[in-house]
Amino acid sequence: MTNALTPRRGRLPALVAALTAGVLLLAACERPPVETVQRGYRGTGMNQVYNPRTVAEQATLNAVPPAPPQAPTDGPAASTVFKNVKVLGDLSVGEFTRLMVTMTEWVSPAQGCAYCHQAGEDFSTDTLYTKVVSRRMLQMTQQINADWKTHVAETGVTCYTCHRGQPVPANITYAPAAQQQQTGMVGNDAGQNKPGVAVGLTSLPYDPLTPFLSNPADIRVIGDTALPTGNRASTKQTEFTYALMMHMSQSLGVNCTYCHNTRSFAEWDASTPQRGISWYGIRMTRDINAQYLEPLTGILPDNRLGPTGDVPKVNCATCHQGAYKPLYGAPMLKDHPELRAVRAALVPSAAAAPGAGELAPPPIPAGATTADAVLLFAVGSSTLAADAGKTLETLIASLKADPSASVTISGYHSATGDLARNQELSKQRAFAVRDAFKAAGIAEDRIVLEKPQSAEANLSGEDANARRVEVTLR
Ligand code: HEC
Ligand code: HEC
Ligand code: HEC
Ligand code: HEC
Q: What CATH number has the domain bearing residue 388?
């Protein structure tokens, strides 16, 4: 008797184990039914697959907070009332205060104003790093909205697009810790077979974001000749490209056919307009990372840095968070025109720079430089002096007269003090000068920005000429 039963008893746990394993495996899949929408010509298989339950869940995550009532635009400018406003100086005091309140709601609702302003101190102090970072974030948001319309269109972005009520956005990238080199035949596996969330838990290289979205590595791998001639792209490179494509699809909650006709992944004619928009999105993301996130090195505290000590960076999911358009295309920006434009950098604002009045920089000695124009800045400030418009006038006229001419902008900083901070300041000064050219209608591709340079060490310590930007006509 027992003999006949024993094998049965033995089979039951095995069966349960097999079933559990099956359920666990399936847990990663989506439960049917799903819906499909045809997005390309019939027969091309360009269908978009949606799971209505995921979409419903997403809809609540992407709800937009109500916009506060508009503030009066008249009255004194913020720069004349407040002491230390470098970006928002030309807003009215009403608009300025409204933005402070909304920024708090978007970024630090739990912490309040005290997240960026040290409690007990005047609002004008820059004690907290969060305020310094926010100022850069304001400039970044304005630049995205003004210069990257090719991607963000009129919908644009606000702080809420990335932050969603959190000081640290939910989706950020760090470079992964350096890989341990394995010996023998295994070698360097380029991050494969360690399923990464960024690449949809596939065994593709798990960090395609550093090479493609922080650095400008080439994404195209397919040859453009009938015979295999000349194309040096390797299988490994191709896997990196596919890994990036997984990240892009996941970030937007779409399939490959949202952008490609799989008959040819390379051909633009066969692709959807969304692929073109993504092409700009890739360039925009690189630009944000290089111009705004990387320069926060030295400003963000250690607990915000990644395993290799790098600053957090932006990827497609930082804004999109699983939606084909962030917040399903809710046009939040229309209620915040102050985040739309690069503010006219030439508006003279005497109160903007600390002590600008008494620190009026002395003229630079003749023959000290070969530059066509030299702009000097007050200590710790990246605001253009009131007479900057005049200094740049002739250069702007020359650029307009000769469309083949361009300008090179080099920022210098003092040789003393914190190097990272000095470099950042020098960069911001160069940006201010660039923005002045752009505001005058000079296309960005005619303006070359050079790396910040340290001025010659000066024994007297404080040297006004060290805080300069040189502009040279080419
Ligand atoms: C997420 C960061 C952040 C939060 C939160 C925040 N601020 Fe600010 N605040 C800034 C930045 C950045 C500036 C400087 C803007 C500039 O340079 O154009 C500033 C400047 C100010 C100034 C001008 C001070 C001066 O004299 O120069 C006032 C006043 C102010 N904030 C009030 C508030 C109030 C009130 C709140 C809460 C409702 C608040 N802020 C919340 C970032 C923040
Ligand atoms: C494109 C996405 C994006 C937009 C838009 C954006 N931010 Fe950020 N922000 C980031 C990223 C990424 C970080 C780095 C996260 C970190 O500090 O660890 C960051 C960091 C910050 C921090 C530092 C938080 C901390 O605790 O370290 C503040 C404050 C901040 N942002 C304020 C703002 C404000 C104010 C705006 C709108 C004017 C804004 N951000 C717009 C992506 C964005
Ligand atoms: C949101 C749009 C989008 C989605 C979704 C997308 N791609 Fe791409 N894909 C692009 C863009 C844009 C490029 C070109 C990038 C460049 O030139 O910088 C590209 C390039 C490629 C290339 C290289 C083509 C060449 O000429 O070498 C391959 C291969 C590719 N994608 C495969 C895929 C696969 C597989 C998927 C799904 C897992 C996918 N893509 C999903 C936008 C997309
Ligand atoms: C700074 C925020 C931000 C980042 C980062 C970003 N996007 Fe976008 N993207 C937007 C906004 C805003 C729109 C909506 C534009 C509109 O309304 O037409 C958009 C629209 C799109 C669209 C068009 C969708 C459609 O159906 O028309 C595609 C495709 C897209 N993004 C792909 C990407 C890819 C791929 C990346 C990463 C390489 C990326 N985006 C990074 C903000 C961003």
A: 3.30.1330.60
